Amino acid sequence: MLHTIIKENAYQDSVVLMLLTNKVSTIDGVNRVSIMMGTPANKDIFGTSGLRTEELEAASANDMAIVVDTEDASKIDEILAEVDAFLASQATKESSNTTETARTWDKAMKLDPDANMALISIPGTYAVAEADRALDEGLHAFIFSDNMPIEEELRLKQKAHDKGLFVMGPDCGTGIVNGVPMAFTNVVKPGNIGIVGASGTGIQEVSTIIDRLGGGVTNAIGTGGRDLSETVGGITMLDAIAALEKQADTDVIVVISKPPAKAIRDKVLALLRTISKPAVTIFLGEKPTYHEANLYHAYTLEETARIAVELAKGEAITAVETEIVTPDIRLTPEQKHIKGYYSGGTLASEAAMLIADALQLKEGLIKQDGYILKTEGHEVIDLGDDIYTQGKPHPMIDPEKRIAFIEDAANDPETAVILLDVVLGYGSHEDMAGQLAPAIKDVIAKAKAAGRELAVIGTVCGTLQDPQDYKEQRQTLENSGVIVKDSNNEAVRTGLALVGRTVEEADKAIREVESGEAAPILEASDAMLNLLAKQPRVINVGLKSFAEAITETGGRVVQFDWRPVAGGNTELQKVLQFLNSYRAETADVK
């Protein structure tokens, strides 16, 4: 039976509500529970999960909506007590926080007139208006929020470009601005390599391998996954390359992207061929066969990092040879399939690419229901896909969905290999390896009892400086029976070796390439260069946990205590935004 509780004017950010949902779901007698703000989009999510009720319709965007499926009505009082206690603990934590807080843009800008970036992590429905306001205030915008119409992304990026500002995102999960982490980011040593990427965990995998190889990063500029689409046209990517070319501390430029539109890819390459600094590219899904003078093309994220470090150290570029030691695991004749369950979308894409290459699959790479590969019994799933995270915690925070997939795969007598990642850094679970370990031990033991050996192979994306203990996370996985490798590339190839497959790669020679694409002429603005040269001063519009990471690493932050205005009515918000812009323009004229 469904029970609905509406707590009026009790706004909390999405991460807090996800953690609260997890806590309430452990109460005996609770079949299902969902706790979200009463926005129209969230009401649709309630409906998709079968938890939409008549009482829910009265909730506004500022109201906390709790829908519980329980047969025991007496549990409601216990649930309410748990909710109140959790929210009280959050309030206590916030009161002890010394970060300055503002409820309006005017107050935020008064608290730090020198702010130069807004980090926006509110529901995507409302992110456009706040990004517009940030640009009007002369701030670069880092937009973690997703579900923004692509037409609005294009408009915002064109507006930013005209103002000499960056828009990073939307759906930008990671970034490093002069050593300060943005959103889900690892702690990477400073160095002379600059990264620009339309891929969150792609940036994380490359930057952490660079760190562990003894290199370091100046800046890592996330663009959002759609930046290299035909519609958006690579606006942020091209501006970032131009800025890194002019930035004094950057000696090597790395470009990372999931499969881009060909025309935009060609435009990016045309620009890279004109710059003075050596560059490395990886366009996931492409298998390059050559390098160019001063421009190197990688196939895997690990190869990208290795070439970048060699260039940064002034060393000769060598072919990447991944030495694979096949584990001593005896498979039954029926065990032929590889299953990959990833929290990182780009790591999942890389795994699918390598498996498809080794199996010489003509078809099978897909992007549907979270699957990136599903063919001939093999499957790779991005558990961070929207289908799995709507109203639920991201798999970097919550292991529940991944454990369920691992258990199902282990019960299949044809499964030979299970691949997984553990991504460390700010924003991620404090002990994800510890959360996964009991389930992994259990499935390996059950397979053995059934007369089968099961290979669980994983990688830890992280550095020794991360908030979690990198070595301890590796050791915890190994103690549970996981074969831990130094990179996702190595982990996938090890799994392929177990089923008798390899990925063939030839050495790449340097050759001249005639580009039919005219290179865009771009000038990096002073605002762009200043952002990359100094620790940022941030207005944090949304998740409070992001502010903590900024202050811990020396950045300056003002917390914008955001609430939906105009009752959450987006059309009325647009009117208010227009009036604010009009007033600002009128004031400038006077």
Automatic annotation (TrEMBL):
Residues 342-494 form the ATP-citrate synthase/succinyl-CoA ligase C-terminal domain. Residues 189-284 form the CoA-binding domain. It holds the Pfam family Ligase_CoA. Transmembrane segments: none annotated. It comes from the Bacteria. NCBIfam families: PRK06091.1 (NF004760). This is Acyl-CoA synthetase FdrA. It comes from Listeria newyorkensis.
